[in-house]
Write a structure and sequence with these properties.
heterodimer, A: 441 residues, alpha+beta, 8-stranded antiparallel β-sheet, 5-stranded mixed β-sheet, 30% strand, globular, B: 888 residues, mainly alpha, 46 helices
Chain lengths: 441, 888
């Protein structure tokens, strides 16, 4: 458990102005500096306001309460805003770790007065959430992100402080979801009306049934059994957050991570996009998917520091260009970027198929240490449990000896984890231990 | 005081004595006895409510233990308890006063946050100044959770502060205002009444109450709980002026995500609009959300309001027309028609470009009109991009046996974790059957299985199949099986792990025989491994497998052979060249039609009889059983009976579905075919197929060539009102997705019945199953209508469920099948007309239009002509009867 302490100089609020609304988003005092992160006017105010509300709604949602966790400790964390060189992104993660949402605002969606690149938390209270949908298309919406964007007389001691205990799986999941996104492929795209019909057809209540969604011409086919070209969707009620927005979108673009079944649903508004990334099962956190465990298991990652030093709030990190510039192989850069994503240093944008720089305002330095599977693998390896043979290895774990078979693309293990998940959720601890042994012959 | 003296004190004295004595000790000295006090308290706590206690310890007064815990435990120790130890006597307040513990505030805060009912318990403490009232939502929830007469002091707190938090604290579970007012006794005031009375008496600010209730509706409260706030707002009976002062709020609530809140707001907007108290432009903008609502009434009201607003603000007619076009998203053809009416009445030219987007989505009856309005033609529509593959008919795919010991172990470990695929389970068993001896030679290799199988045996969960597999795994590792079962089940091998008289009991015995054979050093294939995904075993495969036994000098296990025979395909192989030496040989020859001596094992011959192509009654087999037994030499006649049962009070009714089997398995024979013919005992008493998806899926492979007895279980097993996260009854639909025989009456009844379940995961799968078998020609619309008819006519389930299902069938590409089914259902006397048949008639009409089909079924026409009804039934009967007799 990590206790995240948010300190704000004021409560975020949306207030009427002579021409419309002023949205003053308070940023975390721990990150904020003298100048605001952003001062801008929304060019599609209704879309932006409703999308921000959707971000806030997902942040406040619990689609699943893990049995080992009391509901009361699943407090909502505040959204994260990143101001880049040509875009602004608002990110949120549901308290249950099953849904990640991000609003990407291109510069064409905002008339920017001032900007300062960086990442911070922003306060999003229930009153603000309730007021955001009232922003109409033809009114003005001025957005300010920063500590002092609203003129409220605050004494030195009068600031808002929220202490939120964040489960490790939440913090890690928010970082690891980027790794899942980076491995997604386009599945299909639906025009507005078809998407609207599809969303209306979904059950209104909580629904954990696995369905398969496919585009058939201008309509959608939803089936209970897998069909070719269909995207798996469990917990379809999570998509309801899109309902108030679908009428404003141009299309609904769907991507799928074929390895772990996670899917991304994007409302495309042209100059802004609202992404909702759902894991394969509402009760399954992204943190357990282990997409980068093999990379993290490697003894050293040459180039990690070099690539990290290159990060400067880029909206689009071009590995090829970076490779030429810093002299690291393309594959190594991709690996390092994956590891950086798991560390919260970069996110992935499916719209342009590239990573972008942002630093999650959480303490992720211990992510590697905190990963239980990796930790167990280290223990096995360091305890001499791995006995390498030709094409396979024996890994002694307590009174059981597991056989790990390895080949080019064909790893397997005799442990229950592998029997249950295969490679869908990354390698098991025995495989990781074998990988470590191979790297340290 | 020593520990012994302390234990003696709390065991032999009353709670008051214990309190008196312990309160005289310094807190630090008392703490020394925390452990023994807690231990004894927990020992007795286990017997809470049983009026009993452990045999070896006696205690005079159990309340004394509670006092002892409160006197000795620290705050953190108390907080670790699931419940606060609260004695009835002495009162808690006396205990706290006497002991003056340092944990009072933190423990009160903790338990109040945990459970609302502690508010009542701890209230005396903060009233007496022994702690402060916790700043928790639980305080507000306590008002919702139980009714209390309020003292003047309490009423003051309520009216000054707490009441306004009623509009911020939603509650949940049992504690909410909605629940309180719904379930309160009739002679007691609801909170809505009480608050209104306070407002009427001037004790509460009425205007603030009106605003607060609207504030609550703008919050993200759940639909059920939000309902209280809208009802309360209405209960306050706001005046016209009060409504007008809040007109912006009502307009804003039109965008609520909660349909009843939208209806509530719309009603108030209607009143304001009639009174001319709304700005027309604001109204047009605000109606965007309700125009796209799912509820028909909401959309039609919004359309009316839109047109009125457009009249008042002619400059906004084009905007209003564009908004009206949004209502075309409705699935209802009537609403779509009204949306087009509104567009035409306001400004068609402005909205026309938008209409084109809806051409493919509107009902067939509306499509010609929308094409006409847009000036487009259906033929010029571009070919749609297809990203989904069409649903393909199921074709048999060979089941490939595992080829190495390592593969066999990996597969067995896999199915041990997830046994939902019966083919994989059987492949895994075949793997053990052939490579089990090799595996047993390598203890290291088996160690993961040993550990996992033991773990699962300790905590097997609900699945009988998983227990069977875990026991099999343990049997393989330990080298014995009978001994294992004896040890696990007590003194006799009664297989306590699995349900009696079930297919998994049979499965366990089959696997036991397999392990026994491995113990004798004989590796051989599993006779009953399906040859392909139809679930059937080809004659050639079975003969080859039996040859392997012959070569090994070992007789096949009669249970494995019985299952193999049940799965035997009715292919072209004849009995001409089959060996005839052993009972197993004769049974196979008999299954293939040979005239051979029958017996002595009844179960084996019953299975062989099932494998015969004709399955004519054969007394040589049926006489092996003490009395006529279903499908044991005598075909079982099975049927479906549906009736509507009404409760004694007349308020409730439900569907009763029976599937009698003649003869029935009254002897409770364990022969495979007879298991499916058990007499119904209780609701699910006779279900042999298991309790989970995995169990039922495995059972579905018992008799793949004739699944009607399996479908009988599917009918008896269904509970239409049950909604489950993993509904096991979906496994009864598995055979429809496999290559298989034509669907019989019971299979068709399963489809018809399952389509009307409450659980959408069942209905959607049933719809897909129907589409699959219809596409493969395995079920005709006539036969399906015949199966559906008794369910529909019973009136026990809402007709709308089948209407929705038929619409879904049509959406999946089987529109003509759905149409034919509905037409064939139109065969009833006017007085027997099913309720809500109008929706089905509407669908029937739309399906005819969509495909340009004729409505030429004379029986259906006569049926519709005879109906004396109004509304939708009359409207669509007329439309159907007016349809052209010839196809267009």
């Amino acid at each position: 458990m990590i206790e995240q302490v948010y300190q704000y100089d004021h409560v975020s609020e949306i207030s009427p102005t002579a021409h419309g609304h002023s949205l003053a988003l308070a940023s975390d005092r721990n990150v904020a500096a003298d100048t605001p992160f952003l001062e801008a006017r929304a060019l599609a105010p209704d879309v932006t306001a409703k999308s921000l509300r959707a971000v806030s709604e997902i942040v406040g949602s619990r689609f699943y309460v893990p049995p080992s966790m009391l509901a009361k400790i699943l407090r909502e964390a505040d959204p994260v805003v990143t101001v880049g060189s040509s875009s602004t992104r608002f990110e949120g993660f549901s308290a249950c770790c099953s849904a990640y949402i991000r609003l990407d605002l291109d510069d064409e969606a905002l008339e920017i007065q001032s900007r300062r690149k960086g990442t911070t938390n922003v306060d999003f209270g229930p009153d603000l959430r309730g007021a955001l949908p009232t922003v109409a298309k033809d009114t003005e919406l001025r957005i300010g992100v920063g500590a002092e964007v609203v003129e409220i007389s605050t004494g030195d001691q009068s600031f808002l402080e929220k202490k939120v205990p964040l489960p490790l799986r939440w913090v890690k999941g928010l970082a690891d979801v980027q790794v899942a996104i980076s491995a997604m492929e386009p599945a299909f795209s639906l025009p507005k009306i078809a998407a609207q019909r599809f969303l209306r057809g979904l059950p209104r209540g909580k629904n954990d049934q696995l369905i398969w969604v496919a585009a058939v011409g201008p309509t959608v086919r939803v089936t209970s059994r897998k069909t070719a070209g269909a995207v798996p969707l469990r917990g379809s009620h999570r998509l309801r957050v899109f309902e108030p927005l679908i009428g404003l979108a141009d299309s609904l673009d769907v991507h799928l991570n074929r390895a772990n079944g996670a899917s991304s649903w994007c409302l495309n508004f042209g100059t802004q996009r609202l992404w909702l990334v759902l894991n394969a099962e509402p009760w399954r956190g992204f943190s357990g998917d282990g997409g980068v465990l093999s990379d993290l298991a490697k003894p050293d990652r040459p180039g990690m520091a070099t690539v990290a030093a290159e990060l400067a709030w880029q909206d689009r990190i071009d590995p090829t260009e970076m490779s030429g510039r810093i002299g690291l192989g393309l594959e190594e850069i991709q690996t390092v970027l994956g590891a950086l994503a798991a560390g919260g240093a970069v996110g992935f944008d499916l719209a342009n198929g590239s990573y972008f720089h942002r630093e999650l305002p959480f303490d992720l330095a211990r992510a590697e240490v905190l990963n239980p599977r990796l930790k167990s693998a280290h223990k096995l390896f360091q305890g001499g449990a791995v006995q390498l043979e030709e094409g396979f290895a024996h890994v002694k774990s307590g009174d059981v000896t597991h056989k790990v078979t390895f080949g080019e693309n064909d790893w397997s293990c005799t442990c229950p984890w592998f029997a249950k998940n295969g490679l869908q959720r990354g390698p098991c601890k025995h495989m990781l231990a074998v990988e470590m042994a191979i790297d340290h012959p | 005081m020593t520990e012994t003296e302390f234990l003696d004190l709390i065991s032999t004295r009353t709670s008051q004595d214990v309190l008196d004595q312990l309160s005289r000790m310094p807190a630090k000295d008392r703490r020394a006895f925390a452990k023994p006090a807690m231990k004894l308290f927990k020992t007795f706590d286990r017997f809470w409510g049983l009026n009993d206690g452990p045999d070896d310890v006696t205690v005079l007064d159990q309340e004394a233990l509670t006092v002892a815990v409160l006197a000795t435990a620290s705050g953190s120790e108390l907080k670790k308890l699931a419940f606060f130890p609260r004695p009835d006597k002495p009162a808690l307040i006396e205990i706290i006063r006497a002991l003056d513990p340092d944990w009072t505030q933190s423990v009160v805060d903790h338990f109040v946050e945990q459970r609302v009912f502690y508010v009542r318990d701890f209230q005396p403490l903060w009233k007496a100044g022994l702690c402060t009232r916790p700043d928790s939502d639980a305080i507000i929830l306590s008002y919702y959770s139980y009714w209390t007469e309020l003292s003047d002091e309490d009423e003051k707190v309520l009216l000054e502060t707490d009441v306004w938090r009623f509009f911020e604290v939603e509650g949940g579970g049992e504690d909410s205002l909605a629940n309180h007012d719904k379930y309160i006794k009739s002679h007691v005031d609801t909170w809505a009444d009480r608050l209104k009375q306070y407002a009427d008496q001037g004790k509460l600010d009425r205007q603030r109450l009106l605003d607060a209730s609207l504030d609550a509706l703008e919050r993200d409260f759940g639909q059920y709980r939000a309902g209280w706030y809208s009802r309360f707002h209405v209960h306050l009976e706001p005046t016209q002026e009060e409504l007008a002062a809040r007109s912006d709020r009502y307009l804003r609530l039109l965008a609520s995500s909660i349909p009843p809140t939208v209806s509530f707001a719309l009603k108030h907007v209607q009143i304001l609009e009639k009174a001319g108290a709304l700005d027309a432009v604001s109204l047009v903008q605000a109606l965007e959300a309700p125009l796209q609502a799912r509820a028909k009434g909401t959309v039609t009201t919004a359309l009316k309001l839109l047109q009125r607003a457009a009249k008042r603000a002619p400059d906004y007619k084009s905007v209003a027309a564009e908004k009206a076009a949004l209502a075309l998203i409705s699935e209802d053809s009537g609403v779509q028609g009204k949306a087009l009416d509104a567009v035409e009445a306001m400004d068609l030219a402005s909205a026309a470009p938008m209409l084109g987007d809806y051409v493919d989505l509107v009902a067939p009856s509306v499509r010609p009109r929308i094409l006409e309005l847009t000036g487009a033609s259906a033929e010029v529509a571009p070919e749609p991009e297809m990203t989904a593959a069409p649903i393909k008919p199921a074709v048999p795919t060979p089941i490939v046996p595992v080829s190495t010991a390592a593969e066999a172990l990996a597969l067995f470990l896999k199915v041990l974790e997830d046994p939902r695929d019966p083919f994989e389970v059987e492949r895994a068993m075949d793997g053990l059957s052939r490579f089990g001896i090799d595996l047993r030679k390598d203890e290291t290799m088996l160690s993961p299985l040993r550990k996992r199988a033991n773990q699962i045996c300790k905590n097997p969960g609900e699945s009988d199949l998983r227990s069977v597999l875990a026991l099999t795994g343990r049997g393989l590792c330990d080298g014995t099986f009978e001994d294992l079962l004896k040890n696990e089940s007590g003194t006799v091998p009664s297989y306590n792990y699995v349900s009696r008289q079930s297919l998994q009991e049979f499965h366990l015995v089959r696997n036991g025989a397999l392990l026994k054979r491995l113990g004798a050093g004989v590796s051989a294939p599993l006779l009953s491994l399906p040859s392909d995904t139809s679930g059937q075993v080809s004659t050639g495969d079975l003969m080859r497998r039996m040859d392997a036994y012959r070569a090994a000098g070992h007789d096949p296990d009669p249970r494995d052979l019985a299952l193999a025979l049940m799965r035997l395909s009715v292919d072209g192989d004849s009995a001409a060249d089959l060996p005839n030496e052993t009972e197993a040989d004769r049974a196979l020859a008999y299954a293939k039609g040979a005239d051979v001596p029958v017996g002595p094992r009844p179960a084996l011959w019953a299975a062989a009889w099932c494998a015969r192509k004709d399955r004519r009654p054969d007394t040589t087999v049926s006489k092996l059983f003490k009395q006529p037994t279903p499908n044991c030499g005598l075909p079982a006649e099975m049927s479906v009976e549906v009736k509507k049962t009404t409760s004694d009070c007349g308020n409730y009714h439900w569907v009763d579905v029976e599937a009698p089997s003649v003869p029935a398995n009254t002897l409770q024979t364990r022969a495979l075919p007879a298991l499916f013919g058990a007499v119904r005992k209780g609701h699910f008493g006779s279900i042999c197929t298991g309790h989970t998806f995995a169990d039922v899926a495995w059972a579905s492979l018992t008799w793949p060539g004739h699944p009607e007895p399996f479908f009988r279980m599917g009918i008896l097993h269904q509970d239409t009102w049950q909604k489950l996260s993993d509904n096991h009854t979906r496994a009864y639909l598995e055979p429809f997705f496999r290559p298989g025989p034509n669907v019989g009456p019971l299979g068709a009844a399963v489809l018809a019945y399952y389509m009307a379940c409450e659980d959408k995961s069942v209905t959607s799968l049933a719809v897909e199953a129907l589409v699959a078998v219809a596409a493969e020609g395995r079920l005709s619309s006539d036969d399906f209508a015949l199966a559906l008819r008794p369910f529909l006519m019973s009136g026990a389930l809402p007709t709308a469920r089948w209407t929705k299902a038929m619409k879904a069938v049509s959406d999946l590409g089987s529109g003509s099948f759905a149409r034919d089914v509905i037409v064939r259902l139109l065969n009833f006397d006017p007085e027997d007309m099913p309720r809500d048949i109008g929706g089905m008639l509407e669908l029937c009409y739309e399906l005819h239009l969509a495909e340009g089909a004729r409505f030429d079924n004379e029986t259906a026409r006569q049926c519709l002509a005879s109906l004396k009804a109004g509304g939708k039934v009359a409207r669509f009967s007329k439309k159907l009867l007016e349809m052209p007799a010839e196809s267009r």
